[in-house]
Amino acid sequence: MKLLPVLLITLIIAFGCNKEQKTSSTGENKKDTIANQQNNSQTKSDPQNANNNNVENNSSSLTNIEYGISKLPPILKNYDGKIVAMAKWEDKLGRNVLFITETEEKGGDNRHKELYGYHYLISDEENKQVWKINDFIKDCPVDLTLKYIDKSISITDLDKNGVGESLFLYRMACKGDVSPDDMKLIMHEGETKYAIRGTMRLEISGEKPFGGEMKIDASFDKAPKEFVDFAKEQWNKFVLDKIGSY
To answer: Is the model's pTM score more than 0.90?
Structure first.
């Protein structure tokens, strides 16, 4: 009879320990399940966060590509106008910086404004100017437009030779009517310049679009096919100009 209470106590203790182990195991399993769900969620979201931008896909052989205005080396202080766009990257030639500037519109009845582009190779020993461009409108008695097209700057390596190509677009006009602005695309690989010129495609609410001419410069005739294909793609991306409610 004395064994019965002892046996009963032993069974109660064993049952309690077993229940505690099950509870602990269940809690750990829940944590593992939550962690796995989070990991699966992150894995599924990665393709959505992957950069599908053609510019990025075409610049995989370059490194440290940066877009956006940042501080220039102190030696690069002699430029005209205000910086409105910039890109930096590294290729087999070294560290590169490209920046675009615009001057303020000046003049009364005869307005004028200028746009510049600069490309430098930066090193600890020296800073070499690769190229410089300048465009302008002068003596404009009506409405003047000379403006870099926002977010049009791109850095690529389309021919995979380790040297980056740069590209950007801008618009310009001197007019007193409603007509398409001129548009220019400037592309460089090193010192070699390529260009497309034409007009924006103007869409006025309720009317048929007009404009949109594109003239490809003969310089592209000697360029890799990838250059002109990408340039036309970028041109078409920015050519549309809408006026009115849509």
So the answer is: no
